TrEMBL record:
Keywords: Endonuclease, Hydrolase, Lyase, Manganese, Metal-binding, Nuclease, RNA-binding
Ranges of residues in domain EndoU: 1-282
PANTHER family: PLACENTAL PROTEIN 11-RELATED, URIDYLATE-SPECIFIC ENDORIBONUCLEASE
Protein's UniProt name: Poly(U)-specific endoribonuclease
Pfam family, one: XendoU
A GO MF term: hydrolase activity
Names of required cofactors: Mn(2+)
Record note on quaternary structure: Monomer.
């Protein structure tokens, strides 16, 4: 079985939330994300129904703590503190024990022929995802911030590849800002129906909150790819395995019978993930 499919399956057995269409049965004990592509408009919610059972909720609460730890503008330096560092540590230590990251670790050990100790594994994951670097005008960049949270590049949104972050921003009753921050661009949704519900690619406008300036900033993205329903640790596992090869060529993989491409770009020194995301094979990225 393909390693990416194995990680997906492990995540669905762990804290992943299974994406389904509106016609499929809901499993309350496993959780579900209903993906709605039957209609579209600026106010349309792609994730029509989301149920996260209590035994999976802790994973989402841990990653959500990190969402306000970063400067929105990628040209500004970060001001981290001990509390934020502890939040990162708690998130990573918990994620390391989950099924998808165990699968990723076992795969890397088998491929390299080298056993990886717990402290070495923690450091490896931290360096790949949280170690900061500068690149051109970007200051204190990190793969985690880019992939999971998103950044402002002038009027553009860059990164922002975590479905749960999008879901919160699209639901004023769930995000702590109490704002519907998403306005959907329907241009690319029609051709996505064959790849749904597992992967979506679409454009949208985001009212991103700048925690330094204490105000909303209007930014947009023409095309963004999501693995729908993956937990944070599932996405970490996929990106970590993809980065193991340290090659920025497009990689293709099949998930639940549909072929996708998996993009990766590394930091200038090749030690950290810059961005990692999926697209349907038939779309240009």
């Amino acid at each position: 079985m393909d390693i990416y499919q194995r990680i997906w399956d492990a995540d669905m057995m762990g804290n992943g939330i299974r994406p389904i269409t509106a016609k499929e049965n809901r499993n309350l004990s496993e959780g579900f994300v209903v993906v709605d592509l039957e209609s579209c408009g600026p106010e349309h919610s792609l994730f029509k129904e989301v149920h996260i059972p209590d035994h999976k909720r802790g994973s989402y609460q841990l990653v959500e703590k990190l969402f306000d730890n970063y400067a929105l503008d990628q040209t500004r330096k970060e001001r981290s503190n001990r509390s934020e560092s502890r939040e990162v540590q708690e998130f990573l230590l918990t994620a390391m024990e989950t099924p998808p990251l165990r699968v990723a670790k076992e795969y890397m050990e088998k491929t390299s022929g080298v056993q990886i100790g717990d402290q070495e594994w923690y450091t490896y994951l931290h360096d790949r995802w949280f170690r900061q670097f500068n690149w051109d005008s970007g200051k204190d960049l990190s793969g985690f911030e880019h992939v999971f949270i998103g950044e402002q590049n002038r009027k553009r949104l860059v990164g922002h590849h975590f479905w749960y972050k999008y879901y919160l921003e699209d639901n004023p009753d769930l995000n702590k800002l109490h704002q519907d921050q998403i306005e959907l661009d329907c241009l690319n949704l029609e051709i996505q129906k064959r790849t749904a519900p597992y992967v979506l690619t679409m454009g949208y406008h985001l009212k991103a909150f700048d925690y330094e300036k204490r105000r909303f900033i209007d930014i947009s993205k023409k095309r963004c790819g999501f693995f729908v329903g993956m937990s944070a640790e599932g996405l970490l596992a996929l990106g970590t395995v993809r980065a193991m090869l340290n090659e920025e060529a497009v990689e293709y993989f099949t998930l639940n019978g549909v072929k996708y491409q998996l993009e990766l770009f590394m930091s200038p020194d090749n030690k950290c993930i810059r961005t990692f995301y999926t697209m349907s094979e038939n779309l240009d990225s």
